[in-house]
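Milestone 3.1: sequence recovery, worked example.
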């Protein structure tokens, strides 16, 4: 079935995210209060979280960005819709009129680890039919995030995976999964269906090691030392995990770049661009979004990761309300060429 919101005519390859989008309310406090305690927050800062960062990066690369998740009706949903409009992101998913989109309160006391309090909304209350109307077209990239794999909407993701089948060669589109730190909480059935779909996996090192542990991939991290041994370990990690997944694998390691492995091929190190970070929030959404955008443009995986490394390096050197800011395509390309 044709989704009229995607338009009629010559198809422009798009990145379509099935991920959830919500509002983050950042609060800086001197210390996290104990139960029954009290703290004063310094300048609360609302921003859009979840898969929005992936879609924002896609749009900044000049590629069509589409959100297929659920948006609600209310204060937070209106904030999200306005941000979509301001940043060239098209919402093609379901709308719920009976509840608002959710939000997260993020408490930071200066420590690297933050405290999160979540209030789930429309984005988490989908079902098996959430994505059944979605029909990706030629050269589209479908993005799935780990934040959509643990609540009612996960049934819709599972339905889409079953429809996608187990042979990437039979699809007209690419499938990308970034599992996020929630991977250890995903149930075995959901994880099995993800692995069987053989998507492109985009992880940081911690996520990759968690995935390897859950799948029983042969990994030994005992030889990793400061100043040496990381490259050998990353080859071992990517070779072992990639062989188990039988799918393309990208593992990000901050300023050191990323390691890439295609099925049946060798693991390749794609160097990063060391820079000074000005915040403690991850720029993984920027990296995944840029990579997806370049795949939609027809780049191969290694070339897509090269530009994503450059864009992420710029993103972590900039901060707006504590959020890394993804650059546009020309700026990322200029750094890559330099």
């Amino acid at each position: 079935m044709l989704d009229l919101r995607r338009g009629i005519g010559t198809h422009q390859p798009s990145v379509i995210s099935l991920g959830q989008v919500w509002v983050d309310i950042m609060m800086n406090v001197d210390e996290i209060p104990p139960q029954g305690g009290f703290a004063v927050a310094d300048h609360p800062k609302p921003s859009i979280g979840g898969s929005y960062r992936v879609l924002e990066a896609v749009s900044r690369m000049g590629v069509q960005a589409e959100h297929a998740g659920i948006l609600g009706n209310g204060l937070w949903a209106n904030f999200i819709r306005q941000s979509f409009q301001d940043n060239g992101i098209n919402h093609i998913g379901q709308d719920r009129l009976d509840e608002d989109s959710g939000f997260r309160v993020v408490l930071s006391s200066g420590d690297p680890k933050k405290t999160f309090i979540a209030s789930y909304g429309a984005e988490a209350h989908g079902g098996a039919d959430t994505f059944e109307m979605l029909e990706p077209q030629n050269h589209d990239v479908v993005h799935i995030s780990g934040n959509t794999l643990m609540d009612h909407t996960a049934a819709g993701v599972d339905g889409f995976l079953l429809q996608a089948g187990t042979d990437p060669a039979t699809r007209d589109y690419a499938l990308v999964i970034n599992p996020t730190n929630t991977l250890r909480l995903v149930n075995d059935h959901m994880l099995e269906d993800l692995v069987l779909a053989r998507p492109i996996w985009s992880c940081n090192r911690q996520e990759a090691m968690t995935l390897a542990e859950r799948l029983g991939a042969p990994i030994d991290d005992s030889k990793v030392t400061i100043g040496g041994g990381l490259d050998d370990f990353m080859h071992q990690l990517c070779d072992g995990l990639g062989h188990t997944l039988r799918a393309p694998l990208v593992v990000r390691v901050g300023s050191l770049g990323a390691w890439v492995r295609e099925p049946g091929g060798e693991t390749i190190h794609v160097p990063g661009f060391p820079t000074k970070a000005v915040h403690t929030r991850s720029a993984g959404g920027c990296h995944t979004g840029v990579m997806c955008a370049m795949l939609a443009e027809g780049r191969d995986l290694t070339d897509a990761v090269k530009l994503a490394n450059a864009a992420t390096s710029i993103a972590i050197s900039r901060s707006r309300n504590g959020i890394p800011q993804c650059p546009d395509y020309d700026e990322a390309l200029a750094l890559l060429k330099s």
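Residues 13-20+51-98+124-337 form a domain with the UDP-N-acetylmuramoyl-L-alanine:D-glutamate ligase fold (CATH 3.40.1190.20). The CA atoms of residues 205 and 251 lie 6 Å apart.
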